[in-house]
Amino acid sequence: MSVKKDLRRMAMEDVLVLGDGDASLVQESTAEDALASLAPQERERVLTIAARRLAFQVLFELDSRRAQDASEAASILSRARGITPEQVEAMMLLVSGAYMSRKVADDAFQKIAPEWPSHRMAPVDRAILRLAYYEMTATQTHPRIVINEAVELAKSFSSEKSPAFVNGLLDRVLKGAGLGGKKGTSEDESA
Fold first, then answer.
1. Model confidence at 83, in pLDDT bands (50, 70, 90)?
2. I need a surface site. Which of 9, 12, 86, 113 has the fewest CB within 10 A?
3. Distance between CA 139 and CA 141 in Å, rounded?
């Protein structure tokens, strides 16, 4: 089932947004009001999509800083509007896992597409792919959902050709690793 465009827009633009430290309370309360007006299942979808987007942004920033580990993620997450301590804890697990397994992900993509080693990939695509690889191999989220959401991130944050590139690499990971029948979540989930 696909997420309505207005829910996806809310997740990509209004919820758990990184700020420069001077986030407006008016913007934060407007996002909270919008979330509160949603049905519980819609609210969960929006928060899940927003959390994945935020994790991608943190991974991108860690990569840009050439961080040795994910310890700087907490300071990056502290700039997010409306994030709860529980969400920070969950995000730290996701970001740390993806960041610490980046070499494994890069090696897997190198085998799939030797002409595109990680240092030749666009930094945005590299962050999206590393997050998706980690989610596909180390979490209970169904790989098809991960791929769909990675493609949506590429559509929103990268070049015109990136969605196809991301989809192609992740689909080959899915087929090559035998993750298609992965148990844990249903394919009905949107995020």
1. confident
2. 86
3. 6
CA distance 177 to 181: 10
Nearest to 149 by CA among 43, 46, 15, 79: 46
Which structural domain, as residue segments, surrounds residue 108? 5-177
CATH number at residue 119: 1.10.940.10
Domain count along the chain: 1
CB 133 within 8 A of CB 105: yes
Contacts of 184 (CB under 8 A, 6+ apart): 139, 140, 141, 142
Structure-token pair, residue 62: 């860690």
| 98-107 pLDDT tens trace | 999 999 999 9
Query: Rounded to the nearest 5°, which phi and psi values hold at 80?
Result: -80, 135
- Nearest Cα neighbor of 14 from 1, 66, 37 is 37
